[in-house]
Amino acid sequence: MYKDLSCWNKWILKNKPLFGGIVETRVKQPKISKFVNTILPGWFFTDNYNFSALGKVWVLWHPSVKVVVLSKSLQQVTCEVCLPAQNEAIIVTIVYAANDRKLRAGLWVELETLATSSLLVNKPWSVLGDFNQTLSPQEHSSPNSLNIDKQMREFGQSLLHAELGDLNFRGNTFTWCNKQKSKPVAKKLDRVLVPHRLGLLSMQLWLKLALHLVGYFLLQDQTRLLTCMFT
After folding, report:
1. CB-CB contact of 65 with 81 (8 Å)
2. I want to staple 93 with a disulfide (CB 3.0 to 4.6 A). Which of 127, 141, 200, 211 is the partner?
3. Residues in Cβ contact with 137 at an 8 Å cutoff, skipping those fewer than 6 apart
């Protein structure tokens, strides 16, 4: 990640975020403070190094933002977030799903559990990050089959149970590539999810926070930056 500091700095200067997450950092715990202080001096952060030596999920926020960590695991960090000048909090889950199918299944269960948790009652919820799994053959640039396989079904069924669906987005459809010129492959592995059955109360809460429900998937140089900007 250090080789991409200029890319991060450009993105931060342009978008001026107040809260966010970084996944698949591959940075050892002793170096996290140096990295954060370099690109976001004065910011607070939390991580899941207790579950992974390479810190798969970081959550970072400006001092003006109030954050309460609600849940952590190997594949997710969930926080209650209150933005400046807002009285209502939102719940944000940052995920980085494992490459291993069995481990990923554990994340699907976590999302289903969170969906029914009392922590989320009457609060807007968004789940975003790298799910390491496509939902359909159309999310693969060169699918071997047009049939939905078992792993797609497991992911899809979990989202149905959690009543989560894709947020409207702009930008790149495919968010990952193998970087092989001879046999290039691209997939949609990153997503921004929200409850797909936004009831009247949930919609009123989002509107009260003056948040436009649009996700942005942007690729910056060699760094894959998934950005979901609520403005």
Report:
1. yes
2. 127
3. 143, 145, 146, 147, 148, 152
Residue 61 token pair: 């926020």
Element housing 224 (H / E): strand 223-227
Could you give the maximum distance between any two Cα atoms of the chain, in Å? Answer: 53
Here the tokens at position 119 are 């922590």
pLDDT tens digits along 169-208: 887 788 888 888 888 898 999 998 988 765 445 556 665 6
Exposed, middle or buried by CB within 10 Å (0-12, 13-18, 19+), for 188? buried
What tokens appear for 23 in the block? Answer: 């996944």
Q: Residues 138-163: pLDDT tens digits?
A: 999 888 878 889 999 999 999 999 99
List for the chain the helix, strand, coil content (%; round to 5): 30, 30, 40
* N- to C-terminal Cα separation, the chain: 27
**CA–CA gap between residue 120 and residue 80 (Å, rounded):** 9
